Amino acid sequence: MKKIFLSLIILFTLCSSCKKFLEEKTTGILTPDNYYNNSAQIRAAVNGAYLGLNSPFATGIGVAVSSVFSLEYITGYCQRPRPSGNEDNQFLQLTGIDQNNSALETWWTSSYYPIENCNSIIANVSKTSAVPATDRDNFLAETYFLRAYYYFQLVRLYGRVPLKTTPTTSLDNTQLSPAAIGDIYTQIVSDLTTAEKAGLAWTDKTGHVSQGAIKSLLAKVYLTMAGYPLNKGQAYYQLAYDKSNEVIQSGQFSLFANYSDLRNPANYNSGEHIFMIQHDETTISNIMHFSLMPYPVVPVSIQPSYGGAMAPALSFYNSYDPADQRIKEENFYYTQHTQYGSASTIIKLPMPYIYKYWNDQAEVSGRDGSNFPLIRYADILLVCAEASASLNGSSTSDPVAVSAYNLVHQRAFPGTTAAASVALNDILKERYWEMAYEFQTWFDMIRTRKAFDVDNHTIVSLIGYKAPLHNRAFTEADLLWPIPLTEVQKDPNLSK
């Protein structure tokens, strides 16, 4: 990987409301020798390491074009209403992903650039005496979490990738061979368990890493390790259950009563939102509101012409029970809306569209400053239920696990009788419906090697399943993305 990694320290300041990260402020060329000298400098460096979380959402040339949507396109449950080019179609239609596809490079650099920042922070802050030990350990905990998050993203997308945990200090030895997948997961777990020990607060209203985020990600990592490709099985299902149960028993998180509460800025970084990407209308805006506008152009927001990036496959939308509150108008989806500037005029949409990321403020301001959820409590509740059901073969009656499932299911179906036991396949289907279009589904599919046959309402083997919008069935070759050609050209070791 002959990517010349320099330590890119990007300075940020927190907004006075403490709810957003921040405006970038460049201060010239910095090196570790003249940095990390006080808490403000270290805080700025650590804040800079968060940037990679939002990098896949960057927009490219074209309308509603972003690499992040490739993670939903490849599932086959997602369509792009606006006509697209070949790069998107490779994911949308499963025609085979070319190593030249620019989305591959975006996902790659969105992890490796911030990993280099993390490596520099860990190497330098670990030995600093410029701040109290508690502050130092807290800064390091955030950084270890972020490095683990980025490697978790890389290893699931690409499989064997270079594992680098020290900063680049010269141009020597910049070509690195891919590490074994097991070694990468060992590092991820090591980073997260190290972060756990710092004892960060369970929640953090400013949006920084919290103990809840660390334990939640660790639960998701253990669940993934239990499944494919490592197949560590029972012991790791138990670890996933135990860690998700720690989050549940903490009492620090709860599901919002209404799905609309997920979009309420007053609820950001609290309640159900365990970890989010921080956005701001003027400095780091969110692309989701305008990218998901109905297409063809429908005047339901101030800038409707920007839409058409992503919408549910009709067969997936129809897989929801009609009584499911998630498909109630303007919860997760919508099929009509008032005309912008004319509240008395109702516009019928050409198909169901995604409402999860609607932003009332953006509708009139033209800019979306809403945060984006990366880890929700609903996700962790279903992790707990799935881990327990997997431990017990195909179902669970464990009180904690069943209660976790019931919380998610009964919000969707108010007034239904609480289940006394729940089947694994029902939990998996619940994940499809609950986590839809949050860029989680593909990771669920490749770790379980299962898919949701929406036409027959059954969970089936992923290999051999033809998703609603794909041209063909999945094969083993589709499960890992190719390493970007630009990276292989720089470092031939990556092709080994």
Question: Average pLDDT across residues?
Answer: 92
What overall form do the CA principal axes indicate? globular
CATH topology of the largest domain: Serine Threonine Protein Phosphatase 5, Tetratricopeptide repeat
Radius of gyration (Å): 22 Å
Summarize the biggest pleated sheet. 2 strands, antiparallel
User: Can you give the helix content as a percent range?
Assistant: 25-40%
* Strand residues, percent: 5-15%
Q: Provide a count of the helices.
A: 16
The order of strands across the largest sheet is 1-2
Task: Tell me the name of the CATH class of the largest domain.
Answer: Mainly Alpha
Provide a compact summary of the structure.
With 496 residues, the protein is α+β, with helices and mostly antiparallel strands. 38% of the residues lie in helices and 10% in strands.
Descriptive account of the structure:
This protein has 496 residues and is an alpha+beta fold. Helices cover 38% and strands 10% of the residues. The protein folds into three domains: 1-199 and 464-496, Serine Threonine Protein Phosphatase 5, Tetratricopeptide repeat, CATH 1.25.40; 211-275 and 372-448, Serine Threonine Protein Phosphatase 5, Tetratricopeptide repeat (Alpha Horseshoe); 287-368, no CATH class. The strands form six sheets. Strands 1-2 form a two-stranded antiparallel ribbon. Strands 3-5 form a two-stranded antiparallel ribbon. It has a two-stranded antiparallel ribbon with strand order 4-8. α12 (377-391) packs antiparallel against α14. The chain starts with 10 loop residues before the first strand and ends in a 6-residue tail after the last helix.
